[in-house]
Amino acid sequence: MSDAIQLINVSREGRTGVIELARPSVFNCLSMEVHAAILAALKGFEADTSISALLICAEGKNFCTGAELGEVKEKRRSEAEIDAFLRRGHETLQALEESRLPVVCAVQGLCLAGGMELLLACDVAFAAQTAKFGDQHAQFGLVPGWGASQRLPRLIGLRRAMDLFMSVRWIEAEKAEQWGLVNYVLPEGDLRSEALAYCAKLATRNSVGLAMMKRLAIEGLDMPLADALEFEIRNVNAPLRSDAVTEGLAAFEEKRQPNFG
Description:
Distance between the termini: 30 Å
CATH topology of the largest domain: 2-enoyl-CoA Hydratase, Chain A, domain 1
GO molecular function, one term: catalytic activity
Order of helices and strands: HEEHEHHEEHEEHHEHEHHHH
Number of strands: 9
Family: Belongs to the enoyl-CoA hydratase/isomerase family.
Shape: globular
CATH class of the largest domain: Alpha Beta
CATH architecture of the largest domain: Alpha-Beta Complex
InterPro entries: ClpP/crotonase-like_dom_sf, Enoyl-CoA_hydra/iso, Enoyl-CoA_hydra_C
Structural class: alpha/beta
Protein name: Enoyl-CoA hydratase/isomerase family protein
Helix content: 40-55%
């Protein structure tokens, strides 16, 4: 973990695990080592049953401006090295997307290219009013390689995604919210506290139910609707018979907040 601490800050706020990108001098660029550090921290939080949510954030003025281009240049020496570079990013971002934990992202300043790919792997996104979003790959002859080509069209629609890919323009936080790229836009001074408050609310929910809803939504997205609905039926039967639902229904009848432990 000593190497990871140099790249990210790992902490907890109550029942929320916090992973903070910690290289503001290089715009919090993502390298293979940074991805490995994020993945290791995620696995640690997932193994801790007292953790109910995860916050991804960043030090400094900017969230993340993408991959470390020096490393990209170095890895281009061989097909195998580029493949390993791409797969490392995919492994980390897919682990975030598939985590049992709700993953919340808080973005300030620039969120570009690989930084936006990190954002896309999160479940809920907060942005400062001054945040800017874009994909710069085409400007430098590159192609998104950590999932943006697939996740962005699914999230904001094909035409909007193609515009961002091809024009390499930046959009401001208000537009990002209108398009569904982020959920909440806040003054920068409130960004972290509001994101943490949101995560704290998740601690009052049934964690098994949240994990199931996340799985149903993500996996069902690419199924034909009839198959997805059957997938829901098969997977919701057992949770509806759980102790958590017994507690939730009792709380409703007794007009109190449920206690899921």
